[in-house]
Design brief:
There is one protein chain. The protein contains twelve helices and 15 strands. The chain has two domains: 171 residues, Nucleotidyltransferase, domain 5 (2-Layer Sandwich); 156 residues, Structural Genomics Hypothetical 15.5 Kd Protein In mrcA-pckA Intergenic Region, Chain A, CATH 3.10.290. It is α+β, with helices and mostly antiparallel strands. It is elongated, with a radius of gyration of 24 Å. Strand 2 and strand 3 form a beta hairpin. The strands form three sheets. The protein has an eight-stranded mixed β-sheet with strand order 12-11-10-13-14-8-9-15. The protein has a five-stranded mixed β-sheet with strand order 4-3-2-1-5, with helices on both faces.
Length: 378
């Protein structure tokens, strides 16, 4: 792979070239890792640009672009690449080397139909996952990561499938000649707060993860179905104090992160924010409370046990755990205790009904290996 000064090439559809009002340049030699195919479209009445890397098919989404952003699209694309790579946990030095290697910037027309097809498929996926679009930023980091983890064919003349994000890591390792991950992480113990049961997990988590990604992590490690609302209560720099949630004691530093914008309209004594765009690193040190299913109110206490300065992967790892979570929609802690009481008595009138109902829950025994397989795709 070329290591010297390279040209960042954006191969645009005719529609995008028209929208940018730029004259395409002619080029025959380019490095695929520094070349992106791009198209523009409108979703939610907002102009959106999707870029797909020619080497690894990594997807980057730019959303809500106005005239001033389109006028400076070259600068915005450079910033978007940097933000996307940071969101992947790629080392600062690797990002700087990639961006500094691109000494010039060019726009051309598209080169082949297969690349255009890849961009169009990425656009279709944006529509599928449009609920993940974050209106407060042009840079759609979470959605870009999601789309870049979708399996794709290896291309013409090649068999099998691959993940674009993994191919990006491989390309950057080859480009820099070394590992691309080295970030800060924390080891936390997450305990499901049930007085009569020990249900907990210990996990290592990169601190750059967003709270929606932390939510996904917690869903995986406890085998929840992600079919209910959730929220976080954050106690930065102090131990968890449940009195702060009831207003019985002043907890002015407590922050509540909600998963849906509609929740912000409800009155609360605790300051509320939308969890999108919020990062774990902004609230450490401190303890957290994660509540899943606001009806049953499954409360998970998150306590930091250790900090790691040289975490060398870009996804959480479950280190240990104990116990299986209760069935969903069982009625909270009280309903769970009643459920266990009935299931311990085959002569109970509700035994057969609850037995059939619980079997539909598909609750697996805690399996460390299977949990970590799921975490690898975050």
């Amino acid at each position: 792979m070329l290591i010297g000064a390279l040209n960042m090439l954006i191969q645009c559809t005719k529609k995008l070239l028209t929208g940018l009002k730029v004259k395409p340049m002619q080029t025959e030699i380019y490095e695929p890792l520094f070349s992106w195919h791009a198209n523009i479209f409108t979703i939610n009445r907002r102009k959106t640009v999707v870029l797909v890397n020619d080497s690894n098919r990594y997807v980057i989404v730019l959303y809500g672009l106005k005239a001033k952003e389109l006028k400076n699209i070259d600068q915005l694309i450079v910033e978007a690449i940097g933000e996307a790579f940071r969101g992947e946990g790629i080392k600062k030095e690797v990002i700087e080397r990639y961006l500094s290697a691109s000494q010039s910037f060019s726009f051309t027309g598209t080169q082949d139909r297969s690349s255009i097809s890849r961009v169009n498929k990425a656009i279709e996926s944006v529509y599928v996952f449009d609920r993940e679009l974050y209106e407060a930023s042009n840079f759609q980091i979470s959605l870009s990561k999601r789309l870049s983890r979708i399996l794709v064919g290896r291309g013409k003349g090649k068999s099998g499938y691959t993940h674009p994000n993994k191919d990006l890591y491989r390309d950057l390792e080859e480009f820099t000649g070394g590992p691309v991950f080295n970030s800060e992480a924390v080891i936390v113990r997450v305990s499901l707060e049930l007085g009569n049961h020990s249900i907990w997990r210990r996990i290592a988590i990169p601190t750059y993860l967003s709270f929606p990604e932390l939510h996904e992590t917690l869903q995986i490690i406890f085998d929840w179905s992600d079919s209910h609302l959730h929220e976080f209560y954050l106690f930065p720099g102090q131990p968890f104090n449940p009195q702060g949630l009831s207003g019985k004691k002043d907890q002015k530093d407590v922050v509540k992160l909600v998963s849906h914008e509609e929740s912000l309209s409800f009155q609360s004594r605790i300051p509320m924010k939308l969890e999108k765009g919020e990062k774990l690193s902004d609230y450490l040190p401190g303890e957290m409370l994660y509540i899943y299913d606001l009806g049953d109110s499954w409360q998970h206490r998150i306590v930091v046990e250790e900090t790691i300065d040289d975490y060398d992967v870009n996804y959480p790892i479950c280190l240990a755990g104990e116990g299986e979570r209760p069935p969903e929609d069982v009625g909270g802690e009280g309903g769970y205790e009643e459920f266990l009481k009935v299931m311990a008595d085959p002569t109970h009138s509700d035994y057969e009904h609850l037995k059939d109902w619980s079997e539909d829950q598909f609750i697996d025994e805690f399996d460390l290996e299977m949990v970590n397989r799921g975490l690898m795709y975050l």
